[in-house]
Specification:
alpha/beta, about 20% strand
Amino acid sequence: MKQIAINYQSINLQNHIGKLKLKPIRIVIKNILSYMNINNYQLSVLLCDNPLIQELNNKYRNKNIPTDVLSFESKENPYLGDLAISLEKTWEQSLEYHNSFQDELKRLLIHGILHLLGYDHEKSKKDEKIMNDIEKKLFNEIKGLSIC
């Protein structure tokens, strides 16, 4: 089973990023999971704004600040879990890191999915290096895919 649910909170960033299309985002996610040899999965993605992700970050991590991506890993196969991505924070970071909005969103999808798969860069320097290396490889695999 391959199932991706994407929920989209209406956010007024259209002047900056254009119209997001959900089908290309699903294709990017499928490519990430395929590269990781995950062929049976379900996951949900919430694309939201800073106030909502801050509320979630406060509720689940006791950090009352907006963040870029939150991952909620599931222990029930084939459900990988839930991702929440702030499109506002994505836009802010794209400017800060001199990336395109599309590339920053791809980076956050990769990062969040790796967390759903059990990778954790906060455990140790070794784990951080492993996760960073995989993120770079995955990004190179999907960099040509469009999401807008």
